[in-house]
Amino acid sequence: MARSLFALAAGALFGLGLLLSGMVNPAKVLAFLDVSGAWDPSLAFVMGGAIPVAALGFRLGARRAAPLCAPRFSPPTRTVIDAKLIGGAVLFGVGWGLAGFCPGPALASLCFGGWKVALFVAAMLMGMYAFHVTLARPGNAPPAASRG
Amino acid sequence: MTSFTPVASTVGGALIGGAAALLWLALGRIAGISGIVGSLAGAPRDEAGWALAFLAGLMGAPLLVALLFGMPQIEIAAGPLLLVAAGLLVGFGTRLGSGCTSGHGVCGIARLSSRSIAATLVFMATAGVTVFVMRHGMGG
To answer: How many domains does chain B have?
Structure first.
């Protein structure tokens, strides 16, 4: 129960941050990515605001043996920069540049963004499912995560 | 054309970072949106619980604010075909590459993960090239 409440609060905070920062507006995202056009550098400020605060959280976490409501921290386990990582980043970047949507902002604006957001999210879920049924292997599941 | 919003974007970013910190300190989980959504495929029920709660907050809080204070500006230039292509690429690519703007770009960089730094540089670069080609490279 406590876990769900914390997760709900974190999701709400995340969504409000996306809304306030302007990330939910694809035109603004594309204006950031279009360095050679009428460049809007705002999204660099989103990263600049987010990374230090998140880093503080991870630093505080490093002093604790376990999170507040879970038996252990579940950090990503892979450390190698491999073809999957880079190939996935290439595909994601192209998709991001085509429409200006990445997963968070698309979901945050899903309930009020109209049919275009809904269409993007439906296609995104299909893309995730396509990965799940083709390239995902059971061994890829995070080991500690499945028992948290 | 959009206007430069350094203050709102920095404060919004700080909220995003705060959300990532909260999820890490309370649940020990990375606030990566594509990872959380993807984890719902075949996740055990106690896993799905917190992921669904997070997504409810992510979708519900902006809706509430939009209803109370007015709709935010959202301009989507892409047509249906482009949106579908973009969605498929984003969905497949973020799962293949184990993360998106939040998991790699915010959490991973904050953790100084070399994988995330590499992934972020790559998707920023390919996104930038894509926008350049779409806007300036195709006779437009």
So the answer is: 1
Count of Cβ atoms closer than 10 Å to residue B138 Cβ: 7
Q: DSSP secondary-structure letter at B114?
A: H
Please indicate, yes or no, if residue B89 is contained in any of the structural domains: yes
Q: Using an 8 Å CB-CB cutoff, list chain A residues near B122.
A: 86, 89-90, 93
A148, B47 in Cβ contact below 8 A?
A: yes
- ipTM, interface predicted TM-score of the complex: 0.95
Q: pLDDT tens, B107-127?
A: 999 999 999 999 999 999 999
Structural domain of B89: 78-140
Q: At what angle do helices B114-132 and A26-33 cross, to 10 degrees?
A: 90
Q: Which are the contacts of A113, defined by CB distance < 8 A and separation ≥ 6?
A: A24, A106, B74, B76
Interchain contact B40–A (C-beta under 8 A):
no
Task: Give one DSSP letter per residue of B26-71, joined into a string.
Answer: HH-----HHHHHHTTTT--HHHHHHHHHHHHHHHHHHHHHHHHH-P
